[in-house]
Design a protein that fits this description.
The chain has about 160 residues and is an all-alpha fold. It is built from six helices and no strands. The structure holds protoporphyrin IX containing FE (HEM).
């Protein structure tokens, strides 16, 4: 049973972190070469479609991570959680994973949708003034990198567990 939960955990972890990295580094730079209106429609639909999948995957990674550490792992008391190296790494992974998930939903996705639905930014860009839109897109990339840093720390913690 532990093996099955671990396989699900790893697969969903790959989908969650890998999916977000693939959109940021693979899909987004290609979409940025399309005409502005196409970019806007494509990215809005892509994000609203994948957002639920990533949120579900992230939540399932956290739940299976809790099970792997407790029910299928050594963490049976508060003492073990607080005073062993395994417990401390697990708490760190739980906190960072939860933070990354909430950041993605409440900050990354929300801000992205605000930018994509802001008519002013896109009309200005179509009229030739791309600066406000570029600034907003740069801000989105900076916000998204917080989640990516979280994933990198999580992977380091997984190796330490
Ligand atoms: C991007 C997110 C994550 C990825 C890619 C990921 C990946 C992995 C991998 C590859 C393993 C196997 C490690 C090994 O056997 O050496 C693992 C194990 C584990 N992970 Fe995660 N993980 C993620 C998030 C989390 C979170 C948020 C938690 C805490 C709630 C967690 C808790 C655990 C636990 C307890 C194990 C079992 C370690 C053991 O006892 O051997 N993981 N994870």
């Amino acid at each position: 049973m532990r093996e099955l939960v671990l396989v699900i955990h790893i697969l969903l972890g790959i989908i969650w972190a890998g999916g977000i990295l693939f959109i940021g580094w693979g899909v987004y730079p290609v979409a940025a070469r399309f005409p502005l209106n196409t970019q806007r429609i494509f990215l809005t639909r892509l994000m609203s479609h994948t957002h639920y999948l990533f949120t579900l995957a992230g939540a399932a990674v956290i739940i299976t991570g809790i099970l792997l550490g407790t029910v299928f792992g050594p963490l049976r008391s508060l003492e073990t959680i607080l005073h062993t190296s395994y417990g401390k790494h697990w708490i760190a992974a739980l906190s960072i994973g939860t933070f990354a998930l909430f950041w993605g939903v409440l900050v990354g996705y929300r801000e992205m949708m605000l930018v994509f639905t802001d008519d002013y930014l896109w009309k200005e860009a179509e009229g030739g003034d791309r600066k406000p839109l570029s600034q907003e897109l740069f801000r989105l990339a900076a916000l998204e990198s917080v989640e990516i840093i979280g994933f990198l720390v999580l992977i380091y913690l997984m190796v330490q567990l």
